[in-house]
Amino acid sequence: MHQQDLAQGYGSVYLPFALEHKYPHADCEWIWQFVFPAERFSKDPRSGIVHRHHLHESGLQRAIKRAVRQAGVQKRVSCHTLRHSFATHLLENDYDIRTIQELLGHKDVKTTMIYTKGISYFRARDNIVRSEMPLNVLNRGGRGVRSPLDS
């Protein structure tokens, strides 16, 4: 979609004023493009430039609810459920708790440690000592999650 928008002259995104002036062509770079772009273009009232903006959070929430309903899932699922699942899966795969803290944007690692409670329960249920899990995760160090953009 981004390449198509660039070809049509609409490949830029709205950036805060200071960034727009500091990095004049950053608005067309891949790194600034939205993960969930809007279907339609919109006109920036400040500059008059036509951009593709990001999908509004309520639109994403509706899309998730619709997908859950169509999939026949009976449990409540939200955007936050996906965030929680992401963190839980990282913990299950022994990723470093500090990396997960950073990815989730938590200021205090105690907030991130909440995710270890469920993991500890399931590991204990599977005959793994509960107290091993947090130390195991805390001592992993250096095994962070890499984005394709980090390459």
Automatic annotation (TrEMBL):
One of its GO terms (biological process) is DNA integration. Residues 1-130 form the Tyr recombinase domain. GO terms for molecular function: DNA binding. Transmembrane segments: none annotated. PROSITE patterns: TYR_RECOMBINASE. Keywords: DNA recombination. It comes from the Bacteria. InterPro entries: DNA_brk_join_enz, Integrase-like_cat_sf, Integrase_catalytic, Tyrosine_recombinase_XerCD. This is Integrase/recombinase. The gene is int_6.
